[in-house]
Design brief:
The structure is a homodimer. Helices cover 66% and strands 0% of the residues of chain A. The first copy, chain A, contains ten helices and no strands. The radius of gyration of chain A is 19 Å and the shape is elongated. The first copy, chain A, starts with 10 loop residues before the first helix and ends with a helix. The relative contact order of chain A is 0.11. Chains A and B meet through α8, α9 and α10 of A and α8, α9 and α10 of B. Chain A binds a DNA duplex through α3.
Amino acid sequence: MDASTYHHGNLKSALLEHAAAEIEDSGVEKLSLRQVAKRAGVSHAAFAHHFGSAQGLLTALAAEGFTLFGKALSDARNRDCPQDVDQLESSGLAYIQFALDHSQLFSLMFSSKLPDFSDPTLDEASMKAFQAFIADVHGSNVLEVDGPGGIDTVAMGNWAKVHGLATLLLTGRMRSVLSLDATQRTQAIRQILANDGN
Amino acid sequence: MDASTYHHGNLKSALLEHAAAEIEDSGVEKLSLRQVAKRAGVSHAAFAHHFGSAQGLLTALAAEGFTLFGKALSDARNRDCPQDVDQLESSGLAYIQFALDHSQLFSLMFSSKLPDFSDPTLDEASMKAFQAFIADVHGSNVLEVDGPGGIDTVAMGNWAKVHGLATLLLTGRMRSVLSLDATQRTQAIRQILANDGN
DNA sequence: GCGTTTATCTTGCCAGTGTCAAGATTATTT
DNA sequence: AAATAATCTTGACACTGGCAAGATAAACGC
């Protein structure tokens, strides 16, 4: 926007913003760096210095997504009184709601191998979000426990259920749930999360 | 292979095979039609007549994947005696095992928007597989039921749990489970599936 | 048998992509 | 004020998928 300056000032965050916007209405699969650059009013090779490669941009974007995700979860936890509600329902709904609200970002974060998940920043952001979710639901930090006896299978099962529901809804499966209107759908999701399994 | 013939004979299925192979060791994200064509010993534009576009190929590949998926599930059902075992564990394990064995194909089928899921062939193949899974676990066809009271929330919950576990394992989350050796991991998955939730 | 039509595959081109190298421009430091 | 570093542009490269026009082979009608 600032055409007067040769140096943009904060190009890095500007590119991230535009990339996020571009992704959210065109899909992750067909993201074009050149398009994003044009949208930011900058040359097509301006990325290199800030992100290295396209993967660098997507990695940063995914990391940003995970901190946003973590915030959405903690917001839900703070909003709902811990005494009154079932935390699995509350946090699970927030988990799923985030997936539906930021569908493209969510699929970048989870259903793609485009970002570099070994990147320390991304790794830390994602772990933080997961830990927070598990802690909210179970009151303990179970992700770091390993060894055969140490795994909290209940926590894993709940996480899997919530995550599976989110992705199945996101990818257009579960049409009987998707065809419901907003309030009925929320109700249905609540019921699915609440049920005992068998 | 048959260099003597100008007309390949069964190029369509040959291209599908090579594409599947290429995907499985290079990933879905970076599939190149030209590379597949070269591998099949054919020109880069030979696709057009058989699949139309790249999406056509991926759609056919996904459809093939779903029938394969359905067969893996029914195989598991037939192998394990229905009386002895918990069907959720049996079918769930087969579901997850398929995901781990054909990881790239699985992510094409579920975690991508590259295929055209409105394609009748693909739609039918996927629905068939899902129906079979639900029927195996619950003995009834619940996917077609809709309306607020008609949804089988227990079946949905179990499906979500199994699918979530598959995708979380596939994308490298749940490290404490992934770090186990094969038999211990199977045991852990079994436990996660068996637990009641709360 | 032969000629025509149809299906299949190739060649050549196009606009578009991400990446790299070299240079221009501005900020920062010394 | 000079030197250095950071930032951005320009131009090229190899590669991608899609399209048009033509070559080749098969199938069909007679």
